[in-house]
Amino acid sequence: MKRGALLLVVVLVGMAGFLARNSIFPHLSSWLNVGESPGCTDHVMILPGDETLRPLVGAAFVRVGLARDVLISQTKVSADEEDGISLPTSEIIRSIVRHRGIPDEKIVSLPGASRTTFDDARALAAYLESRHEDTVTVITNAFHTRRTRYIFQKVLGPKAERLRFVAAPNPGFADDNWWQQRSATRIVLSENLKLAFYYFRYGDRSWWVGIVSVIIAIGFIAWRQRKTLQLIGKPAKAEDQNRTADPCE
User: How far apart are CA 218 and CA 130, in angstroms?
Assistant: First the structure.
């Protein structure tokens, strides 16, 4: 009985989400952005994951005097990077920051082998261990700021009060059109699902079972809508066109 009621709620919410998608869907993206206004801090930390926009924002902080130096997490080296086929993410970020006029003495590599945002938070926590008053601006994309803040608060505890989270622009999409692009749809739904998992894993689980179900339902509806629009806009095959032109043949 309870499962049937929950399923009914999910279906009804999903239908409501579809009918009001133009007013609901933008909020699934905009609520992910908890970026703060820029301010003066001792350091600016550029998180890996976007090797274009984030480094540019981080370099600008140092150039205009909002931070003394740039902190970069050392990322785990992949097989391609070991073979010299590609550069490590941390080296790409370092190169971009240098190109934007930041000298080597103002670029600090945080030790470790980062693979996740949790690793980045642990690296920063270790760096701040002997720097009891230092403040840090953490740079990441807008869609990633809420999850980043949650993770850093979990790892750093009271030290997180010394952090600011500033959003770089999202790569190629806005809050009012993300569901019209496959890559943006993947990013927004993935971030919401990851947040729901973290809240379920580390917070009050009873609230999040229903929320995950609703997000999945809305994501499925968005995907079905996209597939339907693709089918409608797909040109008919030649034999289908001939059959339509002469239905008696």
Answer: 46
